[in-house]
Amino acid sequence: MRIRQLVLVARQLEPVQQQICRLFGLEVAYHDPGVVRYGLKNAVIPVGESFLEVIAPDREGTTAGRFLERRDGDGGYMVILQCDDIEAERRHIESLGIRVVEKIDLDDAWGTHLHPKDVPGAILSVDAMDPPESWRWAGPEWRSHARTEVATKLLGATLQSPNPDALARRWSDVLHEPLVQEGDVPAIRLEETTVRFVPPMDSRGEGLAGIDIAVREPIALVARARDMKLPATEDSVDVGGVRFRLVRNSEVR
Q1: pLDDT tens per residue, range 206-253
Q2: 20/214 Cα distance (integer angstroms)
Q3: Fold of domain 148-251
Q4: Which parts of 89-165 are beta strand (E)?
Q5: Contact between residue 180 and residue 168 where contact means Cβ atoms under 8 Å apart
Q6: According to CATH, what is the number of the domain 2-143?
């Protein structure tokens, strides 16, 4: 199991997608017409073989709109994991009594969105693809839009919570993966990716607060971020209400 796609929610789609693409040298691959039924518009952006998605409400009364109000602005929204055996994962989820709010069964793609009250921290979806290297949610031509000159792949997600240990235990149970300690924070190590659980980084409450991304030249990227007037440190940049931690590509295991 691994992180395959991370989702941000924004009040306005275009500014955030444009900032992400300009900063990380990426391209939008797909605007999914299917999200209209949820009152949303979106942009799916390949990062190598992984994906960032930005969604924005397109009408009043959406779940995403309520999330924006609750967390006081743009931010992280959803973690999508890819598994090998979707039926086994679904049986495990059912055995824990976790509610499923969306179940997708197509010829080549399966999705399982879990209820955020049962699995808090972010909306969690456990998905599968056939073949595994495909990714239907990014559209039929996503490979022609994949750019790796600046950023090469997503490495992890950081969830903040007033009780990170309890949140970590819940995710560990759901993903049936053990907890490890990374410094002073609990984490779940998945295939080539990691989910970390930290105390609040800001006053916005529980949520997806950070994304680890592999980049080729962190110093040049930070300079670009500052030219774009984005908040940046020597190893992180804030975009769309999320802190992107920059990991030099040569350091990726």
Answers
A1: 999 999 999 999 999 999 999 999 999 999 999 999 999 999 986 765
A2: 14
A3: 2,3-Dihydroxybiphenyl 1,2-Dioxygenase; domain 1 (3.10.180)
A4: 100-105, 109-114, 123-129, 151-160
A5: no
A6: 3.10.180.10
